[in-house]
Amino acid sequence: MEDPVNNVVRDMLRINGVKTIHHPVDNQGIDPTTLPMDSEISSILLTPSHQYPMGGSLSISRRIQLVNYARERNCYIIEDDYDSDFRYTNSPVESIHELDPERVIYISSFSKNFIPSLRLGYMVLPTSLVSNIHYSKRFVNIHSPTFEQLAMEKFISNGYLEQYLNKMKKKYIKRQHVLIKCLKKSFGKQVEIIGGETGLHLVVCFKGVRFTSKLIEKIKGRGVYIVPVSQYSVFPENHKSQLILGYGNLDENQISEGISIIKSVLKSS
Residue 186: helix, strand or coil by DSSP? Predict the structure, then answer.
């Protein structure tokens, strides 16, 4: 697994008895050349389109290296295509699944890009795994709701999902620009902004600041919800200066006010 990583996924695997190896990421995501060669690995779980939470995007060269590693080790790649619909710069990079459909399990959902309450996710599986997954799913939740699936199929085939995503990308990139502008105005070179190519959040490194639980609660007490990157890492000391700042459901005034409050709290602390 990548580190940092979504701690819900990490905990879900842990309570199901899955042994995990946590591998630190850099600004591009996971580096296949540094993966262990002396461990028995059944699968590699990663978010190559937009590493969560650090925001890196895996380059095509690393994707090829990763596929070669999986072939050599005879293991699967679980590709969580997180935030791929909200890419603001450059052209979309082809999925790892396209490089080797029989080696990659591709997973995604409509929760982030459309409606969370729809509760629809999907997997594109190697053919060798279809029957086993179909059998297992019967014991998890019997089936997915037919009506919602049919409605979503029509929404996609008629081009409405693409229209909706294009509309929302314009809104989100505008909000991101406001957030970056506010951060630079308030903190200047004291902050490093990470992961702005894709998604609905930025990781911001505040130089010389350590976000202790007391400091985080102080900021939250002023009405600004923030999440420290350290919360998502098994190596929390490496990320004590970094915050995750989301902008998906905030207007420009809320973004500006939030950064002003963070500045005020840090100045008083």
Answer: helix
Structure token digits, residue 177: 């620009």
2-157 and 169-268 have identical folds? no
pTM of the model: 0.90
User: Which tokens go with 74?
Assistant: 């005879």
C-alpha distances in angstroms, 145 versus 2, 108, 134, 232, 258? 32, 17, 15, 32, 39
How far is Cα 32 from Cα 69, in angstroms, rounded to an integer? Answer: 7
Nearest to 226 by CA among 190, 258, 266, 257: 258
- What class, spelled out in words, does domain 2-157 have in CATH? alpha beta
Domain residue limits, the chain: 2-157, 169-268
169-268: which CATH number, 3.90.1150.10, 2.60.40.1190, 1.10.940.10, 3.40.50.300? 3.90.1150.10
What's residue 116's pLDDT?
Answer: 86
Tokens of 135: 């059998």
Q: Which residue has the tokens 């915050």?
A: 243
Cα–Cα distance measured from residue 21 to residue 253, given in angstroms and rounded to the nearest whole number? 42
Q: pLDDT tens digits, residue range 55-104?
A: 989 999 999 999 999 999 999 999 999 888 888 877 667 899 999 999 99
Residue listed under structure tokens 């459309």: 114
